[in-house]
Amino acid sequence: MAVADYVKSWHAMSIQGLNITAQLGDWETQHCGSQTHAPRRNCGTAHSLKDDSTGSRRCPCIMGPVQPECFDIDVRGEQLRLHPQRAVVWPARATLVIADPHFGKDDIFRGAGIALPRGPAIADLQRLTGLLAANACTRLIVLGDFLQGVTQAGDSFLQAFRVWRQAHGSLTVDIVVGNHDRRESAQAWQQIVGWHTRPLIEPPFVLARGPAAHPEGYVLCGHLHPVMRLRRRSGAGRVPVFWQRRDYLVLPSFGSLTGGAEVAVELGDRIFAAGPERVIPLPVGVP
């Protein structure tokens, strides 16, 4: 994606969020006859809303003025909560999992002379704080591309992250290194986070950078930035999705300044659209 496209995406983020909400609402109305809104409850409770058609559980958590509706799935006997903020909660381990935040991208653009406002990284860190608090998580795992590129002294993200890390001193943070992270100094980062060059094996899951079957467990990963194009009466639009396959679950990109790649869905896959307010399962094969 061209630099100009990223700049436009930052200036239009709030409008895009509204458009995604409209696209999902129109899609539901077109394919389901009406919009589906489950009663909202705190994800911290043990009471979730079972979807009898899929066996999954939809459970909205409280975060901000709008209460986002999450969608729970069972994988290898473990409950995973898909969150509209493009994250996964693993309740049994009090763990929040995200992929591809690409922190520091705005610093790199400004260093290249591209006029881009400060703020995306701080906004994403604030989102993390809200997610951790709302879901009582004591651990954060990042599946690849924690950073956009090599950091430099004076980068606004480094300053913001130091403050954020001090404010969350009891939080365990584990980074699974992605291709964008490889030129960073592991020794420097290991002082404040777990810096892992290999997948984390935590049965029944393998927490990895990218999608590939693994002999030691079901893979949770990122790297692809999956999106799907939804057709509606007024046109078409792309939405970030969770892409569940037989051997792995691909998370959408968490970062505000990241693009997306449309996925090639096959029979047996499951797709969950991550709108700003709710996660919606999409029937495979229905455009």
Task: Explain what this protein looks like in three dimensions.
Helices cover 23% and strands 27% of the residues. It is globular and about 50 Å long. The protein has 6 helices and 18 strands. The protein starts with a helix and ends in a 5-residue tail after the last strand. The strands form 3 sheets. Strands 10, 11, 12, 13, 14, 15, 16, 17 and 18 form a 9-stranded mixed beta sheet that branches. β3 (71-75) and β4 (78-83) form a beta hairpin. The protein has helices spanning 3-11, 13-32, 105-111, 120-134, 156-167, 186-189; strands at 49-50, 57-58, 71-75, 78-83, 87-90, 95-99, 139-143, 172-176, 194-196, 200-202, 205-207, 218-221, 226-232, 235-244, 248-250, 261-262, 270-274, 279-282. With 287 residues, the protein is of the alpha/beta class. The chain has one domain.
Describe the SSE topology.
Elements: H1 3-11, H2 13-32, E1 49-50, E2 57-58, E3 71-75, E4 78-83, E5 87-90, E6 95-99, H3 105-111, H4 120-134, E7 139-143, H5 156-167, E8 172-176, H6 186-189, E9 194-196, E10 200-202, E11 205-207, E12 218-221, E13 226-232, E14 235-244, E15 248-250, E16 261-262, E17 270-274, E18 279-282
Parallel strand pairs: 6-7, 7-8, 8-9, 11-12, 12-15, 13-16
Antiparallel strand pairs: 1-2, 3-4, 4-5, 5-6, 10-11, 13-14, 14-15, 14-17, 17-18
Q: How many domains is the backbone divided into?
A: 1
Residues in β-strands, percent: 25-35%
Which regions are unreliable across 5 or more consecutive residues at pLDDT < 50? Answer: 1-22, 27-42, 44-49, 52-56, 58-65
Helix content: 10-25%
Computed CA radius of gyration, to the nearest angstrom: 18 Å
Tell the overall outline.
globular
